[in-house]
Design brief:
about 70% helix; 22 helices; mainly alpha; about 500 residues
């Protein structure tokens, strides 16, 4: 078909604001001007050309439908699925720098370049990921792909984003556990832990500087309680594991109560507009009905309850638990309790695996390696499992910690268009996120103690932190530079700063 001027105008309008509400087409007041003017950036976008071509109305009963509805119907799913593969395939090898950098890279790919979502929708999906347990950057990858090409698109994007880093870390975990003495690490690894810890400090600063007054208080309380619980030998790890999620729940409740006050201490965003035709069209692409979303919530809760009950009962009765079931239970439980992703997961992982699975030095070396890999920090689990039980252990650990976040984002996205207009949901997220940031602050203190043992370690920490925070160097380069600095300072090289940084048992002054 050849496009007439009228058809071209209709198609261009669909790229902006054309939706159908109650059988009438609603348009932006400036749509006429926009639809008759061309944008070089839009013309250069292959995705838009495909969509415009696919959206051409024909004579087979399409006259009564809006341009947006034609866009959804006339672009074959296989075309959108191929677009997802092309868009997300590079992310698994270029997404360095932690959760914040990953979100920025994804926004550039999805919102700016391809215009699959607008900024508001993108940030809403990001907020939902922040409010769910699991790795936020991975959940954002899944949800944005899900909104483009349905469930298979979401699963494909997840695998493309996470698998490259996971494979490398499993290999590293197997090799380190086989060839490296954790109590006497080689010269080329001594600089990795302090360099990695400097990046945790940077993440805490970046998170905390955006908090409002109430958020700072919640963050401070969360940090203090986490440090207290972690440092008290009289508190069992079985109790500690419930303190972290309790802090997040309390933070959400406090934030919600504050939002109801006439003059709240916190800053709260208004909910998005309610249900409209655009939301209906998005739901069609997602392809998951609400009842299926509810069923996925039940599946997640069932797996969590079953594994925790079986392992807990076996330990209470003194029965030996299958090692892979133990790994899966630990990781699935942590993945179900950690909100905000990223460094928030570190204190819980350390409590569970050190010293039960490995020495602290091995843990910190793996953290440094993970910081230098693309993909989410939750891939650290594959390294931990591989150190403990080889390749199979790494795979089980990775599936265990990723499972809750992926299941829950698939369950939540169908409810997204409705939750956008729920005020209590958005206000509660403020407190949950602030308390989660407090956990990152606690991780800074707890991990610093184990990573910085000598003056040389302290120098690496300051050097790497300066590169990251002052010169904005990418995380892999920061870890690499810290590793080189540590290797040069090693006692087998120049022997610089080989004095204990903190005097044992308090020391004498």
């Amino acid at each position: 078909h050849h496009k007439t001027a009228k058809e071209s105008k209709l198609i261009m309008a669909s790229n902006w604001t054309s939706v159908t509400v109650g059988g009438e087409e609603c348009k932006d007041e400036n749509e006429e001007t926009r639809s008759t003017s061309s944008s070089p950036a839009a013309d250069a976008t292959t995705t838009r050309e495909e969509e415009n071509s696919a959206a051409r109305p024909d004579s087979k009963g399409h006259e009564g439908k809006s341009a947006a509805e034609l866009l959804i119907e006339d672009i074959p799913w296989i075309v959108r699925y191929r677009q997802v593969i092309v868009a997300y395939a590079p992310l698994g090898v270029i997404s360095f720098g932690g959760p914040q950098a990953n979100v920025a890279i994804l926004r550039d790919h999805i919102v700016i370049r391809r215009k699959w979502l607008d900024d508001e929708s993108f940030m809403e999906l990001f907020a939902i990921g922040q409010g769910l347990p699991g790795p936020t950057s991975t959940q954002l990858v899944v949800s944005t792909a899900l909104a483009r090409a349905g469930p298979l698109g979401g699963i494909t994007a997840f695998l493309l984003f996470d698998i490259p880093g996971m494979v490398v870390l499993i290999i590293c975990g197997v090799l380190i556990s086989t060839f490296v003495d954790p109590n006497n690490p080689p010269w080329y690894l001594v600089g990795l832990p302090p360099a990695a810890i400097s990046l945790v400090f940077q993440s805490f600063y970046d998170f905390a500087k955006g908090l409002d007054k109430l958020g700072i208080v919640l963050c401070f309380i969360s940090t203090l309680i986490s440090i207290l619980v972690n440092g008290d030998e009289n508190i069992s790890p079985d109790v500690t594991q419930f303190v972290y999620p309790l802090l997040l729940v309390v933070g959400g409740i406090v934030s919600y109560i504050d939002s109801r006050r006439k003059n709240p201490y916190g800053t709260y965003k208004s909910p998005s507009p309610g249900w409209d035709a655009e939301s209906d069209l998005t739901m069609k692409r997602i392809g998951i009905p609400l009842w299926m979303g509810g069923l996925l919530f039940i599946v997640w809760a069932g797996v969590l309850t079953a594994t925790v009950t079986i392992v807990g009962r076996a330990k209470a009765e003194g029965v030996t638990v299958n090692v892979y079931l133990e790994i899966f239970e630990v990781m699935f439980r942590i993945g179900s309790l950690i909100f905000g992703g990223g460094q928030v997961v570190l204190p819980m992982l350390q409590d569970e695996v050190v010293p039960n699975w490995m020495a602290k030095d091995s843990f910190l070396q793996g953290l440094g390696l993970t910081q230098s890999m693309p993909g989410p920090l939750f891939n650290f689990s594959s390294y931990l499992g591989a150190v403990y039980q080889g390749v199979a252990g790494g795979l089980v650990a990775w599936v265990g910690i990723m499972g809750p976040g992926v299941i829950l984002i698939f369950a939540m996205v169908p409810f997204w268009c409705r939750l956008r207009r729920v005020r209590w949901f958005k206000s509660s997220l403020n407190g949950v996120n602030a308390s989660a940031i407090g956990l990152v602050g606690a991780a800074c203190i707890i991990l610093y103690e184990g990573a910085v043992n000598t003056t040389a370690d302290a120098m690496v920490f300051v050097f790497a932190g300066t590169l990251a925070m002052v010169y904005d160097l990418a995380a892999p380069l920061v870890v690499l530079a810290g590793g080189v600095f540590g290797a040069i300072s090693h006692q087998d090289a120049l022997g610089l700063g080989q004095v204990e940084w903190c005097a044992p048992d308090g020391g004498d002054f």
